[in-house]
Amino acid sequence: MAGLVEGKVALVTGGASGIGRASALALAREGARVVLCDLDEAGGAATAAAIRERGGVASFRAADVRSEADVEALVRHAVEAHGRLDCAHNNAGVTGAAGPLHEIDLAGFERTLAVNLIGVFLCMKHELRVMLGQRAGAIVNTSSGAGIVAAPGLAPYCASKHAILGLTKTAAVENARRGIRVNAICPGSTDTPMLRAAIGRDPALEKRVAASQGGRLASPDEVAEVAVWLCSDRASFVSGESLVVDGGAICR
């Protein structure tokens, strides 16, 4: 049987580790030619190499999603290499500045929004320009459970992830008649290097977050499977959706 995204060209940001790496691997496994980016050049190159070792097609470019020049060059590379861009998973993000809102400095707030929100905006802007010319495409943005409910101590992260849902819905409506679907995924606490770093600073954190979502952390692969489905034609009438992948955590 053909893969879910057989023959498609897919772009993944933040592909060096965590959900981005899992998404790139899953898209390739399901038949896509993958272009991925990250600031972590070694990790990104390793993801692309892993795809090629499994018989897939992948290339890596170092890119900072806060830079419009980098994002524009990344999308141009995908099109020049493969002739088109069918789907994109805009996943790059950071936890960012932490602490009570009144103690967070402006620089920390701005950096968090620059990566998490402006990065998604820039990627969507240039991806949509290509997809509009094709009159076809699917975009998936990584938000978070913190894009739906409060995340005490993580005000900048929470604000950025809420805002991603607004961008997603607006782009979905703007492009509903143009053959382009735009959706978001809202992962719960997922076993990624970013979360492991936080657990290293607060060992009790893992138990607290796992207890809220079925007793365990999500695996990056579990989240990636949802992103791949949304990129595929199996989700052909799904657009503007914010799909929660959290083991029921925010239902509680």
Brief summary of the model shown:
The protein has 252 residues and is an alpha/beta fold. Helices cover 46% and strands 15% of the residues.
Helix and strand topology:
Elements: E1 9-13, H1 18-29, E2 33-38, H2 41-53, E3 57-62, H3 68-82, E4 87-90, H4 106-134, E5 137-142, H5 155-174, E6 180-187, H6 193-201, H7 205-211, H8 220-231, E7 242-245
What does this protein structure show overall?
- The protein has a single domain (9-246), classed as Rossmann fold.
- A seven-stranded parallel sheet has the order 3-2-1-4-5-6-7, with helices on both faces.
- Helix 2 links the parallel strand 2 and strand 3.
- The chain is globular, with a radius of gyration of 17 Å.
- It is built from eight helices and seven strands; from the N terminus they run E-H-E-H-E-H-E-H-E-H-E-H-H-H-E.
- Helix 3 (68-82) packs parallel to helix 4 and helix 4 (106-134) packs parallel to helix 5.
- The protein has 252 residues and is α/β, with parallel strands linked by helices.
- It has helices at 18-29, 41-53, 68-82, 106-134, 155-174, 193-201, 205-211, 220-231, and strands at residues 9-13, 33-38, 57-62, 87-90, 137-142, 180-187, 242-245.
